[in-house]
TrEMBL record, chains A, B:
The lineage of its organism: Bacteria, Bacillati, Bacillota, Bacilli, Bacillales. InterPro entries: HTH_LacI (IPR000843), Lambda_DNA-bd_dom_sf (IPR010982), Peripla_BP/Lac1_sug-bd_dom (IPR001761), Peripla_BP_I (IPR028082). Keywords: DNA-binding, Repressor, Transcription, Transcription regulation. Pfam families: LacI, Peripla_BP_1. It comes from the Bacteria. Gene3D superfamilies: 3.40.50.2300, lambda repressor-like DNA-binding domains (1.10.260.40). This is LacI family transcriptional regulator. Residues 2-56 form the HTH lacI-type domain.
Length: 349, 349
DNA sequence: ATGAAAGCGCTAACAA
DNA sequence: TTGTTAGCGCTTTCAT
């Protein structure tokens, strides 16, 4: 490996001068600089980041902890984050926790030993707070993305799950749906809680009853399995007047499982049942927009998350906590249809 | 920051003993080990990777250079690669070149200065070979994924583009299509060349003419723009007997643009025109399998790529070049249909 | 404008 | 079994 000593020897200067050249320090004679630069080119010298880190106490590396980069929502966050990081001269270490808190701990160990300068994380659950404390102890800034943890102090960037749910459910109600089921994510994740809150409050505001048997949860880790089908099956087999006419799937993955289940049960969307969900279902949407969704600006979220993080890392204006909650875009498409309400609402004639 | 010196002081041993404990060295008295471990726990010590790298000359970090992680094909490669890397105790630095060779060079600089122990790369074009040489000069192993470069010596993992094209086109021909257009990727990428070769040879083997005006290329960087539409428009407006009855889109992104264009031109797939492509169009495929595709095992490719890389990095059996070409799975679905050939093939009665 | 010395956190090599 | 010394590649500090 070529070092500044090799360059120094070749250029007939001291290692310190080489260091000055590669750091664009002032007060260097042009001729000296040229000599050094030529030697660098000829030997193909590239500074050793590890040695620099050791002195500067910064690695110019950021940690990105997401649950699954092959989920389009997260891969967009990753893209937005990576682009923003590189633009500011930082590298990105990626990881996939698969919603598994043990994997998450291992990745956090990894990030800690890599001495990342900051971390952007979508926590697997509220329990992650303890792990985040570990970063705090090492004075490593942490920004939360997509998911909030109560008691967390620091910046975060979320989609507005409550508002998105409100609008999605409102849309269903406006189209005559009074029997709306919610298939939610696990309640130890903030987005799921907020979506449920939006769902319940919207029903109540519209004088619609909230049925416990309409609400179920799926652990994200089991979506691939038959959990969605079991739920959809149960919902559909209930007595005709209790059968939901619409399903609110908490995210795109759940929506897909629901679609599959509905189909396997011989029913059609939206003819027999309407479906809405969070997050865009790509890339179909580009040529055949089907799902009625609350689309979150994932790329933007990643970008803002890194910007916040960088400001903490570079200790610019260390303003107080920044809480950004981005509104989702509601797209009304073909997975929902107007129906004739089977029952009138309270107060309706 | 806590160092081995802090631990040493607290545990009343020398820094070297601490080093031995954290490295699980033999010949340490149990009691000493315990003392040290307690101090480590209490102070929350985590070894500094940079310092270790400086001595060991390895960073336990791998570089992953892909074109765009928000493309499902590549995000699956990334997942497979990341999982495999972590399992072997390595970290992964990610990057997105966007098919841009300048960005690619910057990322390669980054990887070089990060002193990654190895690189898994899907090169933007054949020109990347020079850049790969830079890794070679620094004795950093490189494994190619998805795309091959002529003249490259080393391991690679590809999908079988030639074979996939053969089967896709064969399928179209079997269904009466004699007028098949190819909308390809740029010919400085190996997959595009191989797909074209498969297309042409299959036509020839079936005594079908190869028309130059049926073959076009799209730069991956412009897919979002109207390039596909312009091509589809031209194809469709040609004289009736020259109008293709099927389009072979080189990948899923192109296929989506084609679908969009076909729709905007008021036509339907597969009624008016059949469409086939490479790579699965997810996640629709899970509930509404539509596209007839040659699906490549992306996750597997990433995993194998990292395995090969690791063997080079850890200099196990440094066997000669390993060339893995994985066959795609052909899925016949609803985007293609049987038609009555408008003209008989040469030799047919 | 340039150089020498010291040290970042760790470990290899040797010594005790 | 444990400790001492030196040095990985670089930069900070202080000279010159």
């Amino acid at each position: 490996m070529v070092t500044i000593y090799d360059i120094a020897k070749k250029a007939n200067v001291s290692p310190m001068t080489v260091s000055r050249v590669i750091n664009n320090a002032p007060n260097i004679r042009n001729k000296t600089r040229e000599k050094v630069e030529i030697a660098i080119k000829e030997l193909g010298y590239i500074p050793n980041s590890a040695a620099r880190s050791l002195i500067s106490n910064q690695t110019k590396t950021l940690g990105l902890i997401l649950t699954d980069i092959s989920n389009p929502f997260f891969s967009k966050i990753a893209r937005g984050a990576e682009d923003a990081a590189v633009q500011m001269g930082y590298r990105v270490l990626m990881s996939n926790t698969d919603e598994d808190s043990e994997k998450e701990i291992n990745y956090i160990d990894m990030m800690l030993s890599a001495r990342v300068d900051g971390v952007l994380i979508a926590p697997t659950s509220d329990k992650t707070l303890e792990q985040i404390e570990r970063f705090k102890r090492h004075h490593i800034p942490v920004v939360l993305i997509d998911r909030l943890i109560e008691g967390f102090t620091g910046d975060y960037v979320l989609g507005d799950s409550y508002e998105g749910s409100r609008k999605l459910v409102e849309h269903l109600i406006d189209n005559g749906h009074h029997n709306i089921a919610l298939i939610n994510g696990p309640s130890n994740v903030s987005t799921a809680r907020e979506r449920k809150r939006g769902y319940i409050e919207t029903l109540k505001l519209n004088d619609l009853p909230v049925y416990e048997h309409y609400i179920s949860e799926i652990d994200y880790r089991n979506i691939e399995e038959d959990s969605a089908k079991i739920i959809v099956d149960r919902l559909i087999r209930s007595e005709p007047e209790k059968r939901p006419t619409a399903i609110f799937a908490a995210n795109n993955f759940i929506a897909i499982s629901v679609m599959k289940a509905v189909k396997e049960l011989g029913l059609q969307v939206p003819k027999d049942i309407s479906v809405v969900c969070f997050d865009e279902v790509e890339p179909v949407v580009y040529f055949d927009p089907f799902f009625t969704v609350a689309a979150q600006p994932a790329n933007e979220m990643g970008k803002i998350g890194i910007q916040f993080l960088m400001e903490r890392v570079e200790q610019k204006q260390v303003i107080s906590q920044r809480k950004v909650v981005l509104p989702p875009d509601i797209h009304i498409r073909k997975s929902t249809r107007k129906i004739n309400s089977r029952f009138s609402r309270k107060g309706e004639t």
